[in-house]
Amino acid sequence: MCLHLINSWQPLNSIHLVIEARRPKHNGDNELIQSAKPFVRASVIINNYNYGRFLRRSIDSVLNQTNTSFELIVVDDGSLDNSREIISSYGNSIIPVLKKNGGHASAFNAGFQHATGDIIFFLDSDDAMVPQTIERVLDKWKPGVVMVHYFMQVVDGQGNKLGVFPAKHPGLASGDVVEDLLKTGSFPTTLTSGLAFSRTALKKVMPIDEATFRQAADGYLVRAVAMQGPVQAIDECLACWTRHGSNDSRITADYEGLLKGIRRQMRYMANELGAVPQLARQFGFDPEECVENQAAEYLLYRLFSLSLDPAGHPLTEDTVSALWKLFCIASLKKTGSLSSKLQKIALASLVRVSPSPVSEPLIRFHLVAESRPVYLRKLNQLKKYIQKRLRGAP
User: Fold this and answer.
1) How confident is the model over 112-131, as pLDDT tens digits?
2) Measured between alpha carbons, how far is 386 from 394 in angstroms, rounded to an integer?
3) What is the CATH number of domain 16-242?
């Protein structure tokens, strides 16, 4: 590991306080990472805001990697808890970046500004790497690839295993996904802690718009980078995604929490989809018109929102019938198994014809796993176990 000598700890009130570190000089960027040779270096950027209770686990998971050719940058985005004391305790082992609160994109930008690695990993501070994450990604990185993504073990706040994200079917995309991006605005991928990027690809799309992507900056990056070349999936769980009561992606079972979570996700998806036409033009593609009306997940969330609370639905031109029709078309075009598509179309059809008091439990059942009867969750776990064994997985 390259040891970084940190200058003395500084006051915490500057807008963008960076504690500089000595690091090897970067000898220029390859156009793309051509092979995962032993000298390829990685940068890991942990972004943190008020997650002191998880932060030490996250930092330790990086420092305990089997591959030591990396630098670890920890960005604290204006935390008010004990996060900065925890960061201080690591001394020369990490590169701290301390700043006022600016959101997800702001933390990404600040960390990348000080990264020198050829491959860049982003890690949310409530998540963790497995010991072989960097080693496996560097070993498996194929020539010309701009982004690698991998599965994550879902755990609760106490570390108990809850499942795997994303679902194995449709899984994660591999290869050129530009056609999917142009048509639907997305492709099968994952969240921040399951992503690694080519430095050169990131340089073409950073910094991220901090006002638009105060949250969900990872949704912008996967689209921006995938416009530049092939992506690669690793069929392994190489990170732990922690699901706890404070996740920004949380949707709770009560009516207010359900509706608030749905509309929050709608805003994030609208921002991500809105970036696609601009990115397409930047990289020489012709963007599709109205990509937001071809994105199945976004359409489904709009249908949920309109069904639960027509008066407060933010898109006044939406109608239940039009959303249902658009969703059915988009869903059938989407990558995935036919049975899964038909199940969601059946759900959308029930929501379409049901009054709010009836559609609410249907929507809750679909979005909030904890709201489902215990016996159904046990049956689902058994189903996943049998499928895993049939595939020959341990």
Assistant:
1) 999 999 999 999 999 999 99
2) 11
3) 3.90.550.10
